[in-house]
Amino acid sequence: MRCVCIHAHFYQPPREDPWLDEVLSDSSATPYHDWNARINAECYRPNRAARLTDENGRIVSIVNNYRYLSFNVGPTLHRWMARHDHVLATRIRTSDEEAAREFGAGNAIAQGYNHMILPLASARDKRTQVHWGAVDFRSRFGRNPVGMWLPETAVDTATLEELAAAGIAFTILAPWQCASVRSPSGESRKTPGGTGLDTSRPYRVVLPSGKSIVVVFYSADIARDIAFGGLLDNGDRLAEALLRSVPDDGEPRLVVIATDGESYGHHHRFGEMALARAFQVLSSSRDVNLGNIDAFLARHPATWEAAIAENTSWSCAHGVERWRSDCGCHTGGEHGWHQRWRGPLRHALDRLREKLDDAFEAHLAPFTQEPWTLRNEAISLHLDQGEEDPETFLAARFGRSLREEDAEKILLLLEAQRMGMFMYTSCGWFFNDLAGIETAQILAYAYRALELLREAGGPDLEETFRNDLRKAEGNRPELPRGDVVLDRLVLPARRSLQDVATQAALLGASSSYYAFTVDQTSHVISGGDLFLRLSDLSVEDRRTTRRWQGSACVLSSGGLGDVCRLRENELPPLRPFKKLFYEGDLLELSRHMEDNFPLGPWKLGILPQDDREMVARERSIEAEERWSEQTTEITDESKRLLVQLHSIGVSAPPFLRAAAELSFRSRLQELVEASPTVLDLLSENSPLEALLEEAHSMGLEPELSVLAPHLARELHDALRAQRSVEEEAVLRRVLASLERIRELRITLDLWRIQNEMWRLLESEKERTSGTLLNLAAFLGFAVPESSRTMPG
Length: 792
Fold this sequence. Notes:
The protein is of the alpha/beta class. Strands 7-11-10-14-8-9 form a six-stranded mixed β-sheet, covered by helices on one side. The protein has a six-stranded antiparallel β-sheet with strand order 17-18-19-20-21-22. Strands 1, 4, 12 and 13 form a four-stranded parallel β-sheet that branches.
């Protein structure tokens, strides 16, 4: 009857490039590829295996926080996880299943799809956001959502009506979003700003339609202390605060704490450890139960009623003004900066949305009388599980007699609608300036929406949109208005199908490239550093089925000097190209390329930053491989001199030392590639031993970090395959390998290995062997000295 529930709102704004549908590298997230990757490493992954340590820093327990958290994961973030950290996405789903078995209900709740502020959204967008969020949840967790998180907890009655119509039973709000309450006896009282509100009970909100929905108001004081007050510095203090917050008066009580999930590890380093400790304390308490809202409501339905405060949220003291006016709420920025740009930005997007919607209805009229139902159903094009390909989606709704150009038009219009919703992602208004990366991102979605509409044969809205953006004035002299932000931060990344075809040709892509299917049949002519690739090429956007088809010619003279040209026809005869190539007349060859491939030229600069870096790495490796034979010859010829110099304590000349280091690095890589398992290289009398002995005789220390990821993976896999401590040979080999790795001063990432170690320790509590405990101690676990065995 006394229950504590900690809710984590895990969310990142969609960061995908709207043309490529992938998150590209972002230098502001260094050393990580992008902010999703950084926060994943600092928060989302650690919470699936949070360490509890003793006073010596040794691990005493590993806790899967998702197992005890109530949580929502933003659908667009979850989609990124499924693509880039499938193990984590799977663990989140299984954690929900485990909670359902223990509590009687899963921990996960859904979320409005792309974090749009729903009270400010059109009625159609409200409905689609709720529907898409529910369908996405069902595809990931295999069940219908019972609860749904409202972005920024922004609420009005119309939004609650949409939740109720979608079968959502409850949502979570801040206490100041409650206007009044009524007891079961009928006594009413106002709760202005949450004053006098008892947040330890759920409330039923009766809606004008006659439906109702339960609202749980979270405990704001503890949530504030978690986010800003240092409560995550100590897990015991967090648990004590939660225990004290639950009234003990014989009534069913539910205390819910809601914060950004990123508090637990990203905003507060080691916050996931404090959370794990709090869960450990709470789960052992006899006074309260850990649980989730769904399970509590199943046993204790709401008996009190509440009325909400319309157009309110959890992060704006002025209601929902943060997303449409200069209300004073902002994050970051310099002294004197204003947010007057927010209103004109929303006005510009609202006007664009109206035109998008009008054109959507008009252009779909010949095909369907229910265009908005079709948009709702289009979520099936964007699921990670149960996804429909465009052809199947359209055939199921229009039959297979739909003309190709009509099918393409419908898909273009649907994608324009998706971009039209993404342009309202809340983060575009949340921060301090019009030129922030979040605002530039929503402008990119907006521009892509109007571009798609134009490609579908709809009106060209660009000039009107630009005129509206001119009224949005920012704070930076170099980026003073919305139209300037569009021109300088958005449009340079714009990519036509022809651009994508060029990129695919430069890279030699042959099947898939970002959101595109590539069909490329190439003929390569090469000699020395020079190569010429001639290709029949087609590139199709998997989202819209739009296609560019023709042929490409790429000439590379070594290094990074590749040049690409295109033509919108099949390949011309190859013989003249071969003749000019082998005769060595590069000027005439270039003229022949220009005559036959009139589109271009383009160089590697047209590639996204990720691809430029990939090409640079590949070319550098190729150059290193070309030099490796020569450096090995130099090292072999100079071996006697290098050994003698080392023996008398004299440093080798820089040139000789560099050549020898490059030679040993190349030979080490060859050993890795030739060995069935890298662990074999750690054994006595292995080729690695001989290589190290030779290098040490010359005073060199080969960089063994190249072995680290291979060793970590093989050790993890060995432990993962271990099902019983009776298989002592595997455990002994893992321990011996780790000891040898330490001798060689190779630094391993032990995180996944430790996770498997904990699984074994937990599964073998009754029959832990001495070898298992020795291995656990080596991996940093707290193991009593008396429990270990002497080696050998």
